[in-house]
Design brief:
By secondary structure, the protein is of the alpha/beta class. It has 15 helices and 23 strands. The strands form 6 sheets. It has a 7-stranded mixed β-sheet, with helices on both faces. Strands 10-9-8-11-12-22 form a 6-stranded mixed β-sheet, with helices on both faces. Helix 10 packs across helix 11. The longest helix has 17 residues. It is globular, with a radius of gyration of 24 Å. The structure holds nicotinamide-adenine-dinucleotide.
Amino acid sequence: MSVPFTNISELYINGQWVKPASGHYEAVQNPATEEVIGQAPVAGTEDADAAIAAAREAFDKGPWPRMSMAERIAVMGRFRDCLVAREQEVRALLQAEVGASHLLLNGPQFGGVVDIINYVMQLAGEIKPKTMEVTVTPSLIDPNASGLLGSAIVVKDPVGVVVGISAYNYPLLINMTKLAPALIVGNCLVLKPSPLTPFTALMLGKIAEEAGIPPGVLNIITGGADVGSMISADPRVDMISFTGSDAVGAAILAQSASTMKHVHLELGGKSVMIVRADADVQAAGGAAAFNFTMHAGQGCALLTRFIVHNSVRAQFVETVKATLGFLKVGDPAEPDTIVGPLISEAARAKTENFVKKGLEEGGVLIAGGKRPEHLQKGFFFEPTLFDDVDNRSTLAQCEVFGPIGVVIGFDTDEEAVAMANDSNFGLSGGIYSADKAKAFEMAKQLRTGDVKLNGGTAGLYLQAPFGGYKRSGIGREFGPNWLDAYTLEKAIHYPIG
Ligand code: NAD
């Protein structure tokens, strides 16, 4: 059976479907079966140029930035409804293109995406011009003259043409964290997804047409680093919203510097879970096993570095190992699969190299470490646990993006916090402890964008900001101030009397 939307053979530019200028197409594989699901159009810089021109024209002259917020909210509501109407098709596409399990489709791969659109609509509805206090400003020319009574109104403008460049792992969610906030406040967008997941992005062009988004407001091109670097350097672009690796994030900062773009970066992580001696070790171990294996470890904010008090370390390791035994690794099309495949053979080879490195550096392999024997096809890898890992070793410092967890022992809270912060990353974190006040104190000391105490809240918690310290990023998405990144404040001053 063919996978929905994988017959799309054109790019979406200026409200039209156009063949890639290069005539180049690339096969996209289902990572669980290795079957080719479609031939995706590959954009080149000529297509990127047309997409930027369309977005620029739509922003400078088109209706979208000039509509009222209420009108754009209504369009976004239609966009959400059209997406929901295609739910079964979109879920089938996500399963085949990125190996999304049913569990994750109910959560961040699909269900959470609808919540994101609703949340952005709510935030946009709350944007109102702000009247500042009335004050007397002294005359600069004559300090003895009476000043001027006046005030200012602060309004929010869209930033302009936004480029969204996204990672492959949660393609619909990540694309929507660009599309929804950028468009709702009046920006025009050029979206460039990962070359590994082109169809999930191109599908959004079909939804945009159905929802009546005007031409040029949303442009979707594909392609790789050549297109990415061109669009992040182009002077017609005002902002880049990027989700991906720290290395590419750093390249984007450099590429965009000379044209002084606004840059929002959501990057990688090597997030810790600290397990204190008084913790519920069963709960912590169970959560740890789910964390580092979720979507086969392909998650930026997964907890993968377990800093565990030495008095409970053996029990923790046993619990994680036992829990891993219950996690079914297999085709995400099967409803009880928990751990699906890695995205590609290259991603699996990289994970295998990390195992080799972990052993060379003295880590003790507790579980996994190889391809599952029962799966002959697909880019699967066994959930893999290492104990006795040195926090300075490669395995504890580098982002694997495969299902590997590492356990590191500690004796004092100070040591645990110091090791947690001894990382180039700072995206997420967790602390398990019966002493909630102590855990809260430790959470404040962690140099990371969020900390979940005893598991935190379930699922996507959009009301709180999300983003990184250090090499995990610049800026925040979600939370009450999310739309600030996509707007510019303008103060309009006026005299009174
Ligand atoms: P990647 O950095 O390899 O690629 C991301 C995107 O950047 C792709 O679309 C790619 O084509 C593009 N790109 C590559 N070179 C470029 C260049 N020079 N200029 C502009 N664009 C360029 O990331 P990936 O392998 O797709 O995804 C995994 C990474 O994404 C991990 O590091 C993960 O932690 C991170 N991630 C972060 C978040 C977050 O919210 N913080 C969410 C998901 C994934």
